[in-house]
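Q: Hi! First time doing this. I have a protein sequence and I read that you can turn it into a structure. Is that right? Here it is:
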Amino acid sequence: ENKNITHTGTATATEDGIYEGFSLYGDSVVTDKECFIFFDDRTEHGERADTSEIPGGYGIYCLPYSSSDTYVTFDTKKLKNIFPLKDGESIYQLELSADKKALYMMSQKSSKNYLTVIDAETYKEKSKVIISDEKDQSSHIEYIGEDFMVITHNHPNRDSSISVYTPDGKGGFKENFTTMQYVYDNNSTITDE
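A: Yes, that's right. Below is the predicted 3D structure, encoded as structure tokens:
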């Protein structure tokens, strides 16, 4: 398993009894020499947390490490933000390609969900595509194969859909097809309607 960051958080009650919380949910992916980390910058009510005091700002952080047969040593002095985000974009999923050469970042800005491919060695953006632009829809990478990726789209007032993305030949992905909708039967298998 290459994910190792969990979450913690705090909440305070307002005068009218509503809890406003901030859960420092984070996730990570690990290559042979670096751990890439992000955290959710939104409160439970969708408001953006103030991250202005974090050195390097909000984004994807890289924590180099070395390992032996018995120890893993993190070089915390070299922790840095390698992919800063601005203008209200929030990361909600980070995955690693099978060859560990690319990071796949799912993010949201306004009502749009994006898939950004980032070179895991240079930290440069290779491509960025809009995955969905429906209000209140969430999209998640469910499976990464050698030559395709499956992304689910959860719609609030109707059944969800599945998209298959294939390499575009330029370092990114393009939509190959999308199901109109799917539902889960009692055996948790996908069936078309």
